[in-house]
Design brief:
- The chain has helices at about 1-20, 20-30, 115-120, 125-135, 150-155, 170-175, and strands spanning about 30, 40-45, 55-60, 80-85, 90, 105-110, 140-145, 185-190, 190-200, 205-210.
- By secondary structure, the protein is of the alpha+beta class.
- It has a 5-stranded antiparallel β-sheet with strand order 1-7-10-9-8, sandwiched between helices. It has a 5-stranded antiparallel β-sheet with strand order 2-3-6-4-5, sandwiched between helices.
- Strand 9 and strand 10 form a beta hairpin.
- The longest helix has 17 residues, at about 1-20.
- The chain is elongated, with a radius of gyration of 19 Å.
- The two termini are about 30 Å apart.
């Protein structure tokens, strides 16, 4: 019961506080959000005696391998618990017997080391591949012409004074002496920037962003 109560409170509060400001600012900063069905919600779960639990939210895609399966028929790894399902903004009262359909929102409590297995279970194959790329390049993708100072203001941390008005492309050019390559990374406060796409002239066109907690 404590898992259920804590999970619901954590999910609802975090969605209310965190979710609303990201999308309106994404166009201004040139931010590409992760694809829709990759876990759109994750939050560490504080449970006495456990420090490795995470609440994960999935929107089930049309080509998810769990379509038309009952929740209790899924061979979940040990320690994984399906705690809530929503369909059309309504909570499903009996989670275990629920037949999964496209568009369902499925919330799971999962040990962090089991997240990869859970993703492989619930996500389409191509999205698992994109999620693995995100492990290297970061969860978000920014255009190279986004301003470093604005990104730091949004996500926390402080850019060096001389770099606040620089675009990400300019900043990578200065940091790597005009020869950045994909995979080059810079850590500023809680933000890690990773060169994702670099043109033939050495201009960084896409930058991955990872927020370190």
């Amino acid at each position: 019961d404590i898992y259920f109560n804590v999970a619901f409170v954590t999910v609802l509060l975090s969605l209310m506080v965190q979710g609303w400001s990201l999308v309106p600012l994404s166009k201004r900063l040139g931010l590409r959000l992760p694809v829709e069905n990759i876990p759109y919600y994750t939050e560490s779960l504080e449970v006495p005696g456990r420090s490795d639990l995470t609440v994960v939210g999935y929107r089930i895609a049309d080509d998810s391998p769990v379509i038309d399966r009952r929740v209790d028929s899924l061979l979940a790894p040990e320690g994984v618990k399906f705690v809530a399902v929503f369909r059309d903004d309504y909570a499903i009262s009996s989670v275990d017997s629920h037949m999964i359909r496209s568009g369902d929102l499925l919330y799971v409590i999962c040990p962090q080391e089991k997240l990869l297995i859970l993703n492989q279970m619930l996500l389409p194959t191509d999205e698992v591949a994109e999620l693995e790329q995100a492990e290297y390049f970061g969860d978000f993708t920014l255009r190279g012409d986004a301003l470093l100072g604005e990104i730091m203001d949004l996500y926390g941390g402080e850019a060096p004074d001389r770099a606040k008005e620089m675009t990400l492309s300019q900043f990578f050019g200065v940091r790597f002496k005009n020869h950045p390559v994909p995979g080059d990374r810079v850590l500023i406060g809680p933000l890690e920037f990773v060169a994702r796409e670099v043109d033939d002239g050495g201009i960084v066109e896409k930058v991955g962003l990872r927020i370190r907690r």
